[in-house]
Specification:
Layout (H helix, E strand, L loop, with lengths): L2 H16 L2 E7 L3 H15 L2 E7 L1 H9 L6 E3 L4 H8 L8 E6 L1 E5 L20 E4 L5 H12 L10 E4 L2 H9 L5 E5 H4 L9 E4 L8 E7 L5 H13 L3 H9 L9
Parallel strand pairs: 1-2, 1-3, 6-7, 6-8
Antiparallel strand pairs: 3-10, 4-10, 5-8, 5-9
């Protein structure tokens, strides 16, 4: 091999070794938005992003058990606060978006009645993310409590592991309706599936979604994670979040 070609090969190898990858744990409602944000971040920073999604509570348990995640985008503020109190974080908890709860169906259910439709005899199965680990599940239960449909939904609830599983139940028509994050139904993959309505925000608590950097990764990745968290407040990231149906925090 010629010396010049050998030099190019060596430089390429060194560059490959230098490539950095951080792992971001994200609440399931962020599945599509965080993918687009990560791509924009990689383009700007050169840092690759591996994304792990799931229920915020389960991800929190994994982090506290030592999972090597570098940043955490939760669906609430409570789980990041829990991690901060336990000494697992490298940054203060910061709200990056406000989620919107919707009711979704792909079985022809008449959603014009709003949440009250879940009490109708025609609705046999209702999917809800597990309220013990998923903030959207908690707020779905609060919405149904607000509309006083508790007695009418007994035996109808199907508890899903996360918002993602609620989506699977709805799209396979395993349930009649499901409580979902607006960000999912606005995604390219789901925007033409079934029909949905926004749940009246007065019927549930504000879904403040917060993020933190984590100590479980390497010192180098902790720096990379802080860069990613800063990028979450960039014009590009905010544009993606807004297009995904999220409310945005007001800059102070």
């Amino acid at each position: 091999m010629k010396p010049f070609n050998l030099l190019l090969t060596s430089l390429a190898f060194a560059s490959a070794l230098a490539a950095q990858t951080i792992t971001v744990a994200a609440a399931a409602n962020m599945k599509y938005a965080v993918t687009d944000i990560a791509q924009a971040f990689t383009k700007e920073s050169g840092i690759d992003v591996k994304i792990i999604t799931g229920a915020s509570g389960k991800l929190t348990q994994q982090i506290m058990s030592g999972a090597p995640y570098d940043a955490f985008l939760s669906a609430d503020v409570e789980f990041p606060a829990k991690l901060a109190n336990g000494g697992f974080t490298t940054t203060p908890s910061q709200v990056y978006a406000f989620g919107t709860l919707i009711l979704w169906s792909d079985t022809g259910v008449d959603l014009s009645k709003g949440v009250a439709i879940v009490a109708d005899p025609s609705v046999k199965k209702i999917a809800v993310a597990n309220p013990k680990t998923a903030p959207y599940g908690i707020e779905a239960m609060n919405a149904m409590k607000f509309y006083k449909v508790g007695n009418a939904i007994e035996g109808k609830l199907i508890i899903a592991e996360s918002i993602s599983q609620v989506g699977a139940y709805v799209t396979t028509k395993a349930v009649d309706v499901g409580f979902m994050a607006k960000s999912i139904v606005l995604s390219p993959e789901m925007k033409n599936v079934g029909k949905w309505i926004e749940v009246d925000p007065k019927s549930y608590n504000t879904i403040d979604q917060a993020m933190v950097g984590l100590k479980n990764g390497s010192p180098e990745n902790q720096i990379g994670a802080k860069k990613f968290i800063r990028f979450m407040s960039s014009a590009k990231a905010l544009q993606i979040l807004k297009a995904s149906g999220y409310g945005l925090p007001v800059k102070k």
